[in-house]
């Protein structure tokens, strides 16, 4: 169970501690933040409400710890990461349990997230040793007008203190996707977990402690965003921010100083379906892409743009599959589980009611109990409906019928988002032309949008983000290039 066994030291009474300077601590505020179980809608866990002064202390220790860590050999950093990965996988059960209770993630998916996170850490260790073990050597006479009097040696060096802010929907996986690259690159790491998902993150951080990482190198600070959010993101001790979430990231990017930013801020991923597409394949991918984890994924299919001539057939196939989805509590491994909060459920309902008022066709009856919303396919959606543009982050999927591929591309590109998209066709030439025309960070051909495998580049354009993720890109982003130039008194040419 969560908070027991090797994890007993991270909780006192019914309140989980925060992690700083190699110790599990109670906040001097004497206050806690409640975490509501989306299924029961009752308080499940409590975490520390840390103060700004505690943030200051965490930043000070992180800065000191980073200087020592930067002197740690790459092989040693990798060794500790491999150890943390193994410990994380060994203790997947209590971490998965926390995911089920905090964010209503289906039990099997919760275990999968923890195992995937361990694999990500191990891959990161291997990739970091290879990537950071190489530099570059340049000579001056390759540029016109120069003799060979200068040798330039370049290497990648750490940025310093990295602030990592993962979202509620994959709190463990999207935390380690920031922690692993930061640590292998020689940085220290301050983690601010989401409120929903904080307990799973605290358990995950304890696995890094058990692996033997130095004191102060990793910190996990919990609390209300309204009290410490801006203080963290604007803190002068932060040298890099990696954030995954919603439009809060836009506000962070405007307030952060001259530091590197890595941001993934959601999407309205379009699924363009051509008349020659394999409709059974399309329907299966719409179910997987649109309804897994109740649609609470940045890379979920958010709008179907289907050529009119095949729309009726596709809608019928999707309706048949929606009818087979199981709905209920995450403990029962249901396909559709409660969305993360009442406010999320209310927002989704607002989009549904707007579509109803404006004449969308409901392929199923709209049904809601508390935070649990039954899967809903909306046909004949028009561009004047909110659901055509806004990201529901729930099990509601709009179908827009289009007269041409160009119409579909236009709708996709008119969005303020640009994370991913997908196109279904048997004509690879058409697929490539459409992919090039879609203004998104990634286009999937004949498959639903997805983040992963975790070493693939993952990025958005427009309001969907800044920079690129994926293990290799994250390591590069969390380093900077340093050059050392050797100046020779006279030109020197090998074998000259």
TrEMBL record:
<dbReference type="InterPro" id="IPR029510">
    <property type="entry name" value="Ald_DH_CS_GLU"/>
</dbReference>
<dbReference type="InterPro" id="IPR016161">
    <property type="entry name" value="Ald_DH/histidinol_DH"/>
</dbReference>
<comment type="similarity">
    <text>Belongs to the aldehyde dehydrogenase family.</text>
</comment>
<dbReference type="InterPro" id="IPR051020">
    <property type="entry name" value="ALDH-related_metabolic_enz"/>
</dbReference>
<protein>
    <recommendedName>
        <fullName>NADP-dependent glyceraldehyde-3-phosphate dehydrogenase</fullName>
        <ecNumber>1.2.1.9</ecNumber>
    </recommendedName>
</protein>
<dbReference type="InterPro" id="IPR016160">
    <property type="entry name" value="Ald_DH_CS_CYS"/>
</dbReference>
<dbReference type="InterPro" id="IPR015590">
    <property type="entry name" value="Aldehyde_DH_dom"/>
</dbReference>
<dbReference type="InterPro" id="IPR016163">
    <property type="entry name" value="Ald_DH_C"/>
</dbReference>
<dbReference type="InterPro" id="IPR016162">
    <property type="entry name" value="Ald_DH_N"/>
</dbReference>
<keyword id="KW-0963">Cytoplasm</keyword>
<feature type="domain" description="Aldehyde dehydrogenase">
    <location>
        <begin position="26"/>
        <end position="483"/>
    </location>
</feature>
<dbReference type="GO" id="GO:0005737">
    <property type="term" value="C:cytoplasm"/>
</dbReference>
<feature type="active site">
    <location>
        <position position="264"/>
    </location>
</feature>
<dbReference type="GO" id="GO:0008886">
    <property type="term" value="F:glyceraldehyde-3-phosphate dehydrogenase (NADP+) (non-phosphorylating) activity"/>
</dbReference>
<dbReference type="Pfam" id="PF00171">
    <property type="entry name" value="Aldedh"/>
</dbReference>
<keyword id="KW-0521">NADP</keyword>
<keyword id="KW-0560">Oxidoreductase</keyword>
